[in-house]
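I have been asked to look over a protein record a colleague put together. What it holds is a sequence and that sequence's fold in token form. Please read both lines and tell me whether the tokens look consistent with the sequence. I do not need a full report, just your reasoning and any doubts. This is what I was given:
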Amino acid sequence: MSDGDDKEWRALLDRLQTATYGERILLSLAALVLSILVGALVVLVSGIPADCGGATFCYNPIEVYYELFFGAIGGNPLVEEWSPTNFSMATTLQTTTILLFTGLSVAVAFQAGMFNIGTQGQLVLGSLATAVAVLYATPYLPSGILGTLLLIPVGVVAGAAIGGVWGAIPGALKAYADANEVITTIMLNFVATGISAVLLSQYFQDETSPNPQTPAIPEYAEIPHIPVVGFEPRIDFSLLALLFAIALIGAVHFVLRQTSFGYDLRTSGKQPEAAEYGGVDSKRLMVSSMTLSGALGGIGGSLWVLMVHRRAKERVAGHRHRDRGAAPARGRPVWADHPVRRHAGVLPDDRWLLPPGARADRRGRRR
């Protein structure tokens, strides 16, 4: 990226950061309306080659959007029997909860004038760190409700720590080597998913499964469901996780708006020259903001394990939340045909790295 392009991006970033709440709402509504119109056009064009009895446009955008909206909440409550705790609603809120963390991760870096396009990698490694930490801590902690109260924080802290470390790398590269954080965070996504694939298949593999995944964490280590008003236990969603995400949004907002660290972070993002003139260490703030951003992405990975799958999987976070720069894009896992994974069999024997209770004799087995 040339200096001119970088200045244009910074000018646009400054304008967005100084926008009023009303302007931000209008921008969001305009983007929503435009996306709906573009989607409707795509639906209409897609229906042209279809055979539907002579009509020019075979697909109705209104029907498509109707199904998309009411399908996400489990049906139309005005015309059919409907429960707010149905499976479709749980699935929507489950994804919403994860996206709150990935979106919050990007927002923190954005406030510091940086773009974190590497939330995917932070989420992937955070999920793996959570599963491994909980599995290793389980033999040393009590079971039951006390185990729940201890193991969930252990998993969340582990995911936040690893995600924060992975986020600090592009922050340090930006601060001390002037490396463009957009490029480095995207590249580190590939590195993170490759590392996760190797660690899963070689070091933390569940010996009872042919798929690359860790052993399951104990049931009491999952985020519990709220009785009566919550969703059924068979549904992989807990209102407590959503409430935690909302509470964390409030906490991050308080830090950014009511603390000296948040003031320095926002000032460094809007006017880095003025911030440095005022005594702010801009390089330290670059690393700190990306560390905090990465930690939030890592917590999103923790919830994948503690709420959804009870284990770290090769195709969980990387497949469902790839390059979550603004929480929109999905794609094929980047590590599916990675050469590191194809040649992972050259790594040495690693039975001693398996969590307690999962150390099984591999008898020379290689994945």
